[in-house]
Amino acid sequence: KTKQVNSTGGVSLFIEKSLASHVQDFVSHSSRILSVDLYFKGNVKFRIFVIYIPPISDSKLRSETIDLLLQLLVQTKQQNFYHAICGDFNMHLDTYYPIYFNRPATASQRSYRLLHHLLSHGYEETIPVNASDSLGTFHRDDQVTRIDYVWSCPMLKGFALTSYIFDAQDTCSSDHNPIITYFDDSLLVA
To answer: What is the pTM of this model?
Structure first.
């Protein structure tokens, strides 16, 4: 008999050495949400959220994580931070877009509240949906999907340069491929 192990959290963020002196705070809001604040000259404040939203099968923990993230996003906007949210959303944006554009009453229901909040508040996902049929962010057996994202707040999205999914299957044993996103550093020298 094999024991089933459920993964319910654990997020991390690596900061490049040249940016380490700009880190002013980091908070583990739960084992599923981490925020890191970087401060730059000109009162430029940048917050990065790294998240893991549990799958639908753990609806209570999923709901709690989404509610906490939404509270944190509202606070972050009120504090005038540039910010980005990255990680495993365990959501399929490609199936949500048609609902958002064609069935607005359904799109705003509780089960879709995070994606609805992001889209209706001007956040932008950095990689176009269906950018690649063969390289998703999640792979298991023959299944390849996109459940990991990098979202930029409205103030930050103009600084996004490019994004791509890095094929990590040959370099690590994870069932996820990371998204690499580049931003224009002119934001940091404002």
So the answer is: 0.84
